[in-house]
Amino acid sequence: MRIEKILNNNVVIILDKNDQEVILMGRGLGFKRKIGDTISENEVEKIYELKSVKETEKIEELFAEISDDEIYLADKILTTARVALDKTLNDVAFIAIVDHLHAAVERFKQGIAMKNFLLWDIKRFFPKEFAVGKQALDIIEDRLSIRLPEDEAGFLTLHLVNAEMDIGNEDQSAVDLTRLIEEILTVVKYTLKINFDEETIYFQRFMTHLKFFSERVLQGRTQQIEENVDDDLYFLIIKKYPEAFEATKKVTSFLEKQWHYSTSPDEQVYLTIHLARIIDKNNHK
User: Fold this and answer.
1) Pairwise CA distance, residues 178 & 165, whole Å
2) pTM recorded for the entire structure
3) Does domain 3-52 correspond to CATH entry 2.30.24.10?
4) 28-34: long-range contacts at Cβ-Cβ below 8 A with a sequence spacing of 24 or more?
5) What are the residue boundaries of the structural domains of the chain, listed by start?
6) CB-based contacts of 262: which residues, under 8 Å, 6+ apart?
7) Helices H, strands E: what count in the chain?
8) Model confidence pLDDT, tens digit, residues 46-71
9) Domain 172-283 is in which class?
10) What are the two backbone dihedrals, phi and then psi, of residue 26, each rounded to the nearest 5 degrees?
């Protein structure tokens, strides 16, 4: 492996066999080296693949400013998240996390607190990811001896949610997902005129389904979920759960108007069944 660029003493960029730039991290990897020097595999501790010129340019700008501590922390937070969530998080998350971490540390030093207006929804919709975000605050405090506010755990959570999704790597993705889930819940709540008991297993199952459904909406994908629902089952569900299906129709109409998304019969059936369970539970309190 030959060095293409040196970002700092511990981080370099090489070209892979497809001429794509790859970040290599390792203690002293770039120290007293120059472009064109070779690196052995046993010197490399971490590898991050870049997927676009834009990402490469952002990385070069970032590493001109950030400290080794911040690089270490971003890597540890991402590694912790992959283990805790048991998911494959894309490598671009490293860039987003180190970028946000650097900005958060700088704000803290300047006494600037940035309010996270989505914090309540983030805690509610992404509890596992938020738990990692809070753990990240502990990791940062242990390394830098500063305690960032809980709002920053929320911002880090959004980066983790982005990394779990397939709809791109823009910061707006997780924000849109959070907003969409809240909008669907609002439509359902006012149609059914009920307050959700968020501690019930039925609501939690609905939320799990809603997250994946909302992600499909943002992706614009309308293919079937798992298997095709036949017409007989579709009309049976409509007849059996009219109240729940009325809420599903309102959600379908909302998504068509606001998000230009056509909800398939399969998805309507799944939403209706989940809502019917919640209604039944609510009626038997």
Assistant:
1) 13
2) 0.72
3) yes
4) 30/3, 30/6, 33/3, 33/6, 34/3, 34/6
5) 3-52, 68-164, 172-283
6) 222, 255, 256
7) 11, 4
8) 788 766 556 666 677 777 778 889 98
9) mainly alpha
10) 180, 150
